[in-house]
Amino acid sequence: MTTAARSPHPRAAVFDVDGTLVDTNYLHAVCWWEAFQQQGHRVAMTDIHHTVGMGSGRLLDRLLGEDRDHEGDDALDAAHKSLYATYFDRLPVLDGAADLLRALADRDWRIVLATSAQGSELEALRRAIGADDAIRDATSADDVDASKPAPDPVRQALEDADVPPERALFVGDTVWDVEAARRAEVGCVALLSGGIGRAELEEAGAIAVYRDPAALLADLDASPFGRMERA
Fold first, then answer.
1. 3-class DSSP state of 12
2. Which GO BP terms apply (predicted)?
């Protein structure tokens, strides 16, 4: 792998976290399923999995309907958070995640996380990744008005990086990530590590698809990142 020369024009690499850097999408699905069970809702696991990546409000709208009784939303959200917190000390980082962030930082990319996680959850994810030395900033659900697939998290990440959309790439694992990046006018490199198929990601607008962070790292020079460096 070559090392790119320092660029006078900064570039941003914006990363989703769940399913992209840490192997947590199915953990979220199980925890949401259990939270729904506790509140008397029957929701299919496959439907839950396909909403992971949205903020909790959008997720509940999609799974339970916007016309539901919203009085139970706080209890559902709290149950999911409590169940998920039991995994904080053993969150499985995906192969190559930390190395990919450091490799891009070494190539003069500004690394910003854009995630629906917040508070102690985000702290646990960053501990699992173990690459805070490469991360410039992190945008969480607390920092934006609307979660993915709205473009707000990506736009906030670009603002944090002080980089325009045409000098940035987003890396995510769901169609909601791809849609958020597209609406923010940022190219999205998608990973299969979140459990969403290649065809769905490409149909949503992903400009390249890789198995996981390690596969993207191995192909970095030929990837959209390498092409942007040479442009």
1. strand
2. DNA repair
